[in-house]
Design goal:
Elements lengths: L2 H27 L8 H5 L10 H13 L2 H9 L4 H29 L5 H40 L2 E3 L14 E4 L2 E5 L1 H23 L5 H21 L6 H15 L8 H28 L11 H8 L2 H8 L8 H8 L11 H26 L2 H8 L8 H17 L3 H39 L9 H18 L2 H29 L5 H26 L5 H26 L10
Antiparallel strand pairs: 1-3, 2-3
Helix pairs in contact: 1-5, 1-10, 1-14, 3-10, 3-14, 3-17, 4-14, 4-16, 5-13, 5-14, 5-19, 5-20, 6-9, 6-13, 6-17, 6-18, 6-19, 6-21, 7-8, 7-10, 7-17, 8-10, 9-17, 9-18, 10-14, 10-16, 10-17, 12-19, 12-20, 14-16, 15-16, 16-17, 17-18, 19-20, 19-21, 20-21
């Protein structure tokens, strides 16, 4: 099948969904375009900051995307292009985009509260405590998985000849591994990330304090991108994966306390320029390649191989491809940072529903690029080697390099570096935002448990330090192959629990709820089964006691929240009128 078929059908489906289904959901929840938002009402200059839509969308999109819509389809294509593509398109429209939009909307109406606070409104204090503990576990898992991926991507090497380069070339720095000359692909991204991070405060000052024009901010962000990549090619930085883990852990510890305008917003705004460029280049590559007759050569269905490597198609395809279809982490971003920066309520559909559809499109691009441009044997050797850990990010980057080379004549090595840069910007952004969110949640948890917690429990260094220590402990002792399935199950289950909490919230406001109940039910059944399967088939037989404890705790919390929700729906208390 021609690559254009998969791409264009997805584009049409997403465009129609935004135009019609997204508008229906907005009307159903009671969107009021003239209603003041928490950012406009509170505007404290730190967390609550009215932000131009283009800047907020860049922050929101780069934060929710992370490595998820890249790693998920890269791993999920193992089951075949057909099942993966169908889940991405259907999931993004009816599951993920609805989830993201209603989570953002509920948070806005609750003065920028986290989803845990929305759960308190819907399910009471018991539901709040269970929801917040569940969320903290998810954030620890997502930061652990992404920290592992960051270390892998920043240290990526690949044979020089397979990158289309000869010995003596000057484009990439080389090293010798196992007697083979390897191109240092990840070191360029390492330098680029450092430069972008160092220059982000300057851009943040100009945008937030000097209020420069948006177009000028775009020009400056693009200039920083180009400068960082240029320096990266000339001075790539090479460190070991373990050192990178420590460096990034220390960075996130301090960065999560800085005001959002100082590092978070401007760095996301810069990173998203690389993403926009990378996505535009891949879209152009797919279109040109399609007219050249490029076919998707990866198996349309490959269920037997996928089952042998990851488990049965259901539920594991649906938890492996998480962020490209539906992701509970998005609700944390919506309620943690984005709802505090939205200038007008009428922009919620563009940020929430539209941002998720754009992420679905990215997942489709990844799927078509790998399925058409990367030899299947090469894909298996990189992403699913028989010995050692795989490198799915490198598999994606290489497929981007091959796609751009075949369509636009871009050197394979340069295209591969662009692919690494696209992922790396997302990874750092997600780590920063997720640790910041976990700091908020720990603070809320202590208040819930102790009422008036000890002074040290209210300090940023205690809560940020706890989030960082847990993150690095799991990443250091478990490879992503162990973390990702548990993260996927937890992530999708949190999405289901978010939809359940918002369903109760909408029910009390006497609003329609069927569009949240259906995806919530599907994901609860899917994720609960996956947790049980991994517990008895993988974690217990392999005596992975840490993951056993996490798995069992997640099952208990999920059952508790589900029971509370059903009780509140069947026997609702007096309406709290949350959308009044």
């Amino acid at each position: 099948m021609n690559v254009l078929f998969y791409f264009l059908v997805a584009v049409v489906c997403f465009a129609l969904a935004y135009r019609f289904y997204g508008r229906f959901v907005a009307r159903a929840v009671g969107e009021d375009t003239g209603r003041p938002t928490p950012a406009a009402q509170i505007n404290d200059g730190k967390d609550y900051v009215p932000t131009p839509l283009s800047v907020l969308f860049a922050h929101h999109y780069s934060t929710i995307a992370g490595a998820g819509p890249i790693v998920g389809p890269t791993l999920g294509i193992l089951y075949g292009v057909g099942p993966a593509w169908m889940w991405i398109v259907i999931g993004a429209i009816f599951f993920g985009a609805v989830h993201d939009f209603v989570a953002l909307f509920a948070s806005i109406r609750e003065r920028g509260s986290s989803m845990a606070e929305v759960a308190r409104k819907s399910l009471g204090n018991t539901g709040f405590t269970m929801f917040i503990v569940f969320t903290i576990i998810l954030l620890v898992l997502v930061t652990s998985a992404f920290l592992s991926f960051t270390a892998i991507s920043l240290t990526s090497l690949y044979p020089l000849d397979k990158l289309g380069l000869e010995t003596g070339q000057t484009l990439l720095r080389t090293t010798v591994a196992d007697g083979q000359t390897m191109g240092v692909v990840g070191g360029i991204a390492s330098t680029s990330v450092i430069i972008i991070t160092l220059l982000a405060p300057l851009l943040g000052f100009l945008v937030a304090k000097r209020q420069i024009k948006t177009w000028l901010a775009f020009v400056l962000a693009f200039g920083i991108c180009v400068f960082s990549v240029y320096i990266g090619f000339n001075h790539p930085l090479t460190l070991s994966p373990q050192v990178w883990m420590l460096v990034i852990a220390v960075y996130t510890f301090f960065a999560c306390e800085a005001p959002v305008w100082f590092i978070l917003q401007p760095r996301d705004f810069v990173n998203v320029q690389i993403l926009y460029f990378g996505m535009a280049a891949m879209i152009l590559g797919v279109v040109v390649s399609g007219f050249k007759g490029l076919e998707v050569t990866a198996p349309v269905t490959n269920i037997a191989v996928g089952t042998a490597k990851m488990g049965p198609l259901w539920p594991f395809l649906f938890i492996t491809i998480a962020c490209g279809a539906i992701s509970g982490f998005h609700a944390l971003v919506a309620g943690g940072t984005s709802s505090k920066q939205l200038a007008r309520e009428g922009q919620a559909r563009a940020v929430g529903y539209g941002g998720m559809l754009l992420e679905g499109l990215l997942a489709v691009l990844v799927l078509t690029a790998i399925g058409s441009s990367l030899n299947y044997g090469e894909y298996m050797s990189i992403a699913w080697p028989e010995v050692g850990n795989g490198n799915p990010i490198l598999a994606f980057a290489l497929s981007a390099g091959y796609l751009l080379h075949g369509s636009l004549g871009v050197p394979v090595a340069f295209g591969t570096v662009i692919g690494i840069l696209v992922v790396e910007g997302f990874l750092i952004t997600t780590l920063d935002s997720a640790v910041r969110l976990n700091r908020y949640l720990f603070e809320e948890l202590w208040k819930s448990l102790f009422g008036s917690p000890p002074a040290y429990m209210r300090k940023f260094w205690f809560n940020s330090g706890l989030a960082v220590i847990l993150m690095i402990a799991i990443a250091w002792t478990n490879s992503y192959r162990y973390i990702w399935p548990l993260f996927g199950s937890t992530n999708q289950l949190l999405a289901a629990l978010t939809l359940i909490a918002v369903t109760v919230w909408l029910h009390r406001a006497k609003r329609p709820t069927w569009f949240t109940i259906i995806p919530a039910t599907v994901m609860v059944v899917t994720t609960m089964y996956s947790l049980g399967y991994k517990l008895f088939v993988d974690y217990i037989p392999n005596r992975n006691y840490l993951l056993i404890v996490i798995d069992v705790l997640l099952l208990i919390l999920a059952i508790g929240v589900s029971r509370l929700s059903i009780r509140r729906l069947v026997r609702p208390e007096a309406s709290l009128h949350p959308t009044r």
